Amino acid sequence: MRICILTKADTLSWSQHYVDAFRQRADVMTVGPGYDAKQIADWDLGDLTDTLVRNDIETDLDPDSNLQEILPQGWNPDLIVAIANGGISLQPTMDTLACPTAYITVDTWQSISDYVECQHYDFVFVAQRAYVDFLSDVGASNVFWLPLGCNPEAHYPVDVPADHDIAFAGNVILPTHQHRYDLLQHLEDAFSLHLVSRVFRDELCHAIARGKLVFNQSAVHELNMRVFEVMAMGRPLLTDRQAELNGLTDLFEDGKHLILYDGSDELAEKIRYYLDHEDEREAIAREGHRLVVTEHRYLDRIDALLAIVAERVPPFYAERNGTTMPIADALADFVPFGAGRVVDAGLELKPHLPELRQRGVAKVIGISEAADTDDRAGYDKVVSVSDTAAWPRETQVLTVKSTALIGDDCLASLDVAFGMLAKGGTLIIRLSSQDFSSATGIGSLSQLEEVFAKHGFHVTGCKIEEDQTANVVVRARKRSRRLSDVVEESCAVLPHIDTEGLARWAAVYGPHY
Description:
- With 513 residues, the chain is of the alpha/beta class.
- Helices cover 32% and strands 20% of the residues.
- It has helices at residues 14-23, 37-43, 67-70, 113-117, 131-137, 178-190, 201-209, 225-232, 248-251, 263-276, 278-295, 298-312, 330-333, 353-358, 410-420, 445-454, 483-493, 499-507, and strands spanning 2-6, 27-32, 57-58, 79-83, 101-105, 123-126, 143-145, 164-169, 193-196, 211-215, 237-240, 259-261, 340-345, 361-368, 381-384, 395-400, 421-431, 457-464, 472-478.
- It has a seven-stranded parallel sheet, sandwiched between helices. The protein has a seven-stranded mixed sheet with strand order 15-14-13-16-17-19-18.
- Helix 6 (178-190) links the parallel strand 8 and strand 9 (193-196).
- The longest helix is centred in the middle third of the chain and has 18 residues, at 278-295.
């Protein structure tokens, strides 16, 4: 299996752990921006600079880049995986490669661009569970929770004396980590504290090992990397309950795998208890270590990701073998992988139904202009265009041969399509030259996104038909809520650091998005 990974080179974050895990399962090609001199200088990495792992192909990945032209000739991926990191663009043209695509977002709480980027992918995997619904609301499709994990090659026990009551390794940047700072001040007054920041790899493992207990605090209620890493290093973890929102207690049991606290008083109380009960704290450390290195490795995460894709695109493992599945038809080309149920208004997909089944389309329902058509073969069901009551609802994909089939004009068709699609569903619709007339308000492609946005869609692709240059096929994702509204709600649910900054960032994508 060949997997192309799109990401910014970052040896010291989750990106590299995911890449290392994927390399255990497939032939991997990493593509994306490399390190820059300022980044390396800001990190102050010292001896680690020479060990930074670079991308196999270093290049920017904006919408003007074509991934097929970037990859080596003949190297056709079976899967494309984008790993978001730092809000960089991971949105090259990928349609010509005709393989499933997946997007992994981790810092969704501070990277609004991930909300937009992920809509260009067939599958979306979210490290923080609270964002599954948020991303679906703004138009992402096939969204799944995929927590972070540990890498036993990088996170492992070290046999050094635990000569401090508590160890902590992490950032304390004000005002971002004000609560973390206050708790650490409280601990420093009452206990022996080994506190370090910006340590990585072996140095991190040695720092963590020096604590009889290890302190962690979730700045934004996130289920962060350190939860998994500390347990993999074989130390008893103290972490706050706020990460329950993002699945902490679905994965681990308090008092068995780790130790949970609420506020400074309970934190101090539990520290005193476990310092006095060495056998209990070491039993927790052993049980936590056993669990994470058997069930919560990054390798386990990518196995889960691959299983989800394989389940929804059945020939993913066995039949593709690095080949493409070109369709070369404007409407059919845009049907996403793992689509599930497709409604075909106009029966234009008929010649391509076998190929679409290969892409994971499980059910195809046609809407026919003729009451009794001879073109039913290959469809699971065909209904009449005049029988609107029989039109399917909550469908994953809707293709529309002509806007006149489902509405009086282009704009009416968009409203009808919105009602037929499930949350995050994909609309693939042909617009004629008349649709681009002044009557619809679409005078150019530059105005297309705004018009679609006003009717609840985010445009993710356009294609001018070669044999009918007056027509354009548009692919768009349905969003049930505006991005600005979702950001406002998420700021109320989770303690975002820069609420005003997030609101400004959301506004960049326009008032209708």
